[in-house]
């Protein structure tokens, strides 16, 4: 039974013998790198980069369900990209516009 499932995966139109399998597989590297950047301080996060990651994830997660055959690897990686991008953008926006722990200049009082 396992051999027949492996054979079905191998011969699937979006299986490992096609670019439709490998392109989204390599996109996982972007998502993993974005997860690794969760440890970065918010001031080092780039708005353009995270907007691009988020937009790519949102747009292509929708269109990955339109193509035939459905490519679940493409859908999953784009959901991950959208999620990590939204999280990083929220960290950056929160830091830039809503942080209250800013150091204020000391005022000399006598």
From TrEMBL:
Protein name: Mitochondrial pyruvate carrier
Record keyword Mitochondrion present: yes
Membrane topology classification: Multi-pass membrane protein
Keyword line: Membrane, Mitochondrion, Mitochondrion inner membrane, Pyruvate, Transmembrane, Transmembrane helix, Transport
Entry annotated with the keyword Transmembrane: yes
Major localization class: mitochondrion
Subcellular location, record wording: Mitochondrion inner membrane
GO cellular component entries: mitochondrial inner membrane
Any Pfam family the entry gives: MPC
Functional note: Mediates the uptake of pyruvate into mitochondria.
Similarity annotation: Belongs to the mitochondrial pyruvate carrier (MPC) (TC 2.A.105) family.
Top-level taxonomic group: Eukaryota
GO aspect biological process, one term: pyruvate import into mitochondria
